[in-house]
Amino acid sequence: MKFILKIFFLSLFIIGCSPNKKSNEINLYSQRHYTVDKKQYENFEKLTGIKVNVVKANADELIERLKNEGENSPADLFITVDAGKLFRAKDLGLLQKVTNLKITKNIDPSLIDKDGFWVPITYRARILVYSNDRVNKDELSTYQNLTNEKWKNRILVRSSSNAYNQALMSSIVANEGTEAAEQWASGLVENFSRDPKGSDRDQVKAIAAGQGDVAIVNSYYIGLLLSSSKQEELKAGKAVSVFFPNQGENESGTHINVSGIGLTKYSPNKENALKLIEYLTSKEAQKLYINTSFEYPVNPDVEPAEIVKNWGKFKRDSLDLNLLGKFRKEAILVFDKSGWK
Ligand code: FE
């Protein structure tokens, strides 16, 4: 009996001492919904031998999942298309800091999270597009100007449940206060050409179909439409021009948001996860992003895609992007009050 016990404890000891079996993979929880991502992870796997497993869902669902899984979560990384959601994940204690110099040296300092809890991988502007036939560029100026009565029945934008709109509204609350945001929202609703519906791309198609004249959309969708193989999309892209609002000297700059990545608090494959962040912010991966999804690069050594470059440079709203999360509740209240569906 003693002998059997000895063997038992010895084997426990051996199991305990054997080095952790290093798994050559990373588990990614991602909100991104673009074709470029699969290619990025394949390239990374070829380069490093580390397999990237992706779980896709919307950001709130992924945050809920991380919360419920707690210390047992298999997730290493959380990717979103909204700094507001990264802020929320950080606020709930689901992320850990990334201060790795190999990573931060890849990124434009003005886009880095000052708290160090998320790393931007691309950024995008929420721009105006206008009908080439029915709008003159000089008629446009700011987001606020869209409440002018000259735009009655001419404005197109998707629903207020969408994170891109919620982030934009959060920025307006942060920059100008709740009251101004409420005035803006109800003024804009007055000028809607139809009840909000569809995606950003659908707003552009609606301009092409004559259902409205100015739309608020994310910049990269115009690049995607203009490079589309579908005739209908190409036609929509060609029916509009890009306008960066709020460029005046005393104006905020155009609202931007990042697609960013956070290292989960209990990441089981931390070393691999950091390697992936470093890779995604490298020149090589940044070039693939900008030429495939038409987002803006966060790596200052990489230039935007040709189509995007043609729109010209613009002044970005320099707001701390964490505020897009901090003011999210207020933003949603503003939407509810304004009747923006
Ligand atoms: Fe998108």
The oligomeric state is single chain
Number of DSSP helices? 15
DSSP, total strands:
10
Give start-end ranges of low-pLDDT stretches.
Answer: 10-21
Mean pLDDT: 94
Could you tell me the radius of gyration in angstroms? 23 Å
Helix and strand composition category: alpha/beta
Query: Which cofactor or ligand species appear?
Result: fe (iii) ion
* Overall geometry: globular
The span between the termini is 74 Å
Beta-strand content: 15-25%
Helix content: 40-55%
Largest sheet composition: 10 strands, mixed
Following the backbone from N to C, one meets helices and strands in this order, namely HEHEHEHEHEEHHHEHHEEHHEHHH
Write the layout of secondary structure elements.
Blueprint: H1 2-17, E1 25-30, H2 36-48, E2 51-56, H3 59-69, E3 77-80, H4 83-91, E4 95-96, H5 101-104, E5 119-131, E6 155-156, H6 163-176, H7 178-191, H8 200-208, E7 214-218, H9 219-226, H10 231-238, E8 240-243, E9 256-264, H11 270-280, H12 283-292, E10 296-297, H13 306-309, H14 323-326, H15 328-338
Parallel strand pairs: 1-2, 1-3, 6-7
Antiparallel strand pairs: 3-9, 4-9, 5-7, 5-8, 5-9, 5-10
Helix pairs in contact: 6-7, 6-15, 7-15, 8-10, 9-10
Bound molecules: fe (iii) ion (FE).
